[in-house]
Amino acid sequence: MSLNTDDFEQSLQRQQLRQIPPEWRAEILAKTQHATRNIHHASFWRAIISTLNSQLSTLLWPSPKAWASLAAIWLLLLIVNASTSDRSIAAGRALPRPAPGRLMAWREQERLLTELLGTREMPTAEKTKPTATGPRSERQTEFPII
Amino acid sequence: MAAPFDLERLYDEHAQALFSFLLSFTRSEADTRDLLQELFIKLARRPGLLDGIRDERAFLLRLSHNLAIDLMRRRSARQRQHEQMAVEALDLFAAAHEPDERAFREALSGALWELPPEQRAVVHLKLWEGLTFEQIAELLDIPVNTAASRYRYGLDKLRQRLRPLYDEII
């Protein structure tokens, strides 16, 4: 039996493994550098944000409650402003423009109503209007003294 | 951040060993390239990863093994089956000039592919990386006895499979 473990293992170890494709080196290292550059880019922005954050903290730290209330008021105003403008725009959009014929009829109706109301109001106005019959002292003289 | 020259040095010193191990483990050249790339990107992103590491090769083999395991887990069973069918032509060894040697290497490649991945990993690390069972156990995060038994089972299978050809050649 020629297949001793040691011989067999040694014969396997002697087998030369396949070489890594040489073009992979440039490819892999280039992609690695690209990934590293992206990290540099990200860390640059992170540094800017952190600086900004620290500056803002220095500025706001003396009176954080005042700044927070101011921010809250601004936010409230913005919300109110946005909601009212939205409602008016929506209302304007919701109402359809009346047809010209209908508009004419409506105006005519309005004119008639005004006329009618106008004629009705006249007598009541006359009733309430006090008559200019002279001073009350003169009228009292008409009654006979018993 | 690891300096580019460090990565180049790491590549020049260890890429060949990592390539052979990953090719043996994944049985796919495309996966091997992706994993190798992933490994080097990881090294570039985490420069302190190799700090205090005595054996760079063993550490990088361990990292690549973990990446390969993650890749296998991400794959569905159907994908794995499809890949298993597609690896027939893949050669793990260098092309030999002599016909007998070529035949033996082809047969050895085929026999290795038939081993379960965990046995294949141990056999590869023992035979072609020359690691001890202790080192293999540490690298693959398994007990030393498990590493030794996996090697023994793997080698027995290779012997059975290659016996006719081996007897003929030797």
Description:
The complex is a heterodimer of chains A (146) and B (170). Chain A is elongated, with a radius of gyration of 49 Å. Chain A has helices at 5-13, 23-60, 64-94, 100-128, 136-140. Chain A has a domain at 31-57. The longest helix of chain A has 38 residues, at 23-60. Chain A contains 5 helices and no strands. With 170 residues, chain B is an all-alpha fold. Chain B has 2 domains: 1-90, Rna Polymerase Sigma Factor, Chain: A (Orthogonal Bundle), CATH 1.10.1740; 92-170, Arc Repressor Mutant, subunit A, CATH 1.10.10. Helices cover 76% and strands 0% of the residues of chain B. Chain B has 8 helices and no strands. The interface between A and B is medium-sized, with 27 and 37 residues.
Distance between the termini of chain A: 169 Å
Using DSSP, what is the number of strands of chain B?
A: 0
Work out the radius of gyration of chain B. Answer: 17 Å
Number of helices of chain A: 5
**Nearest-angstrom radius of gyration of chain A?**
49 Å
Structural class designation of chain A: mainly alpha
Q: What is the beta-strand fraction of chain A?
A: under 5%
How many DSSP helices of chain B? 8
Q: Provide the helix percentage of chain B.
A: over 70%
Order of helices and strands of chain B: HHHHHHHH
- Write the element-wise H/E pattern of chain A from the N-terminal end onward: HHHHH
Q: Uncertain regions of chain B: pLDDT < 50 for 5+ in a row?
A: none
For the record, the CATH architecture of the largest domain in chain B stands as: Orthogonal Bundle
Distance between the termini of chain B: 52 Å
Main sheet of chain B, how many strands, which sense, barrel? none
Beta strand count of chain A:
0
What does the overall shape of chain A look like? elongated
Protein chain pair with the most extensive contact, residues per chain: A-B, 27 and 37 residues
Task: Tell me the strand percentage band of chain B.
Answer: under 5%
